[in-house]
What we know:
Rossmann fold, six-stranded mixed beta sheet
Amino acid sequence: MTPVSSKLYTDDVSLLMVLIDTNPYLWSSMKNTAFTFSKFLSHVLAFLNSILLLNQMNQVVVIATGYNSCDYVFDSSSSSMQRAECLLEKLEEFVDKDETLSQEDSVDGVGFSLLSGSLSMALCYIQRVFRTGPLHPQPRILCLHGSPDGPGQYVAVMNAIFSAQRSMVPIDSCVIGSQHSAFLQQASYITGGVYLKPQVSDGLFQYLSTVFATDLHSRAFLQLPRPVGVDFRASCFCHKNTIDMGYICSVCLSIFCKHHKKCSTCGSNFGEARKQDPSASGQRRKTPDGS
């Protein structure tokens, strides 16, 4: 009989961290599209079941992303209940708990989800898996996100992206909102993941099963969607606005849209821009013999 250690964690065994956007402001704005939160969950549940059916050693962990908090709501390795029943029950508890929190506790205010928090939780879970031993499933993160980018989370999101890149964990992005996400475009591009914005919401399961169900080993043999354009613009640290050009602190690399005398992040003093003296420039143009 083949030992468990020899057949466990082959190149097609995956640890899929799924980040679900539960922001009620997002789903209330999508009522006109007839793509409700319950219909969205039906597509996601079918996708999760297909992942677990592809390989009995696959593991799925679901993290709910609210506008005030984020939390683990499902883990296939520890759940003894039915998948759909367990996930829906924990999601309902999380949504009720998230709505009871004060809106003032939100990082950016009403309308933005705590993407940075859910990414950090996913990476922490993956690091625990890495430390269990040399044999572990290949981890990847799938963001099912629709809320607009929160400018106040720019630093935290970028830190999570670079941490995932260092750990060689790809971040896949499936944007279900009305607009693209610059954060997730950069996350998928930097970490080698797949970024996709489905054109038809009712066909979400088809998009998930054909693009995001494949393991990392099989992706080398498939033609997956490639990003047409990536928005690399950053958000300034002073006003949290997206800018094309700005000022960067040479010490901590903080970004500002206007010139400041002092860096608000590390406290470094900035020098004033030197003004060119016309008389001095004229003297430099003269030759030693005065001509």
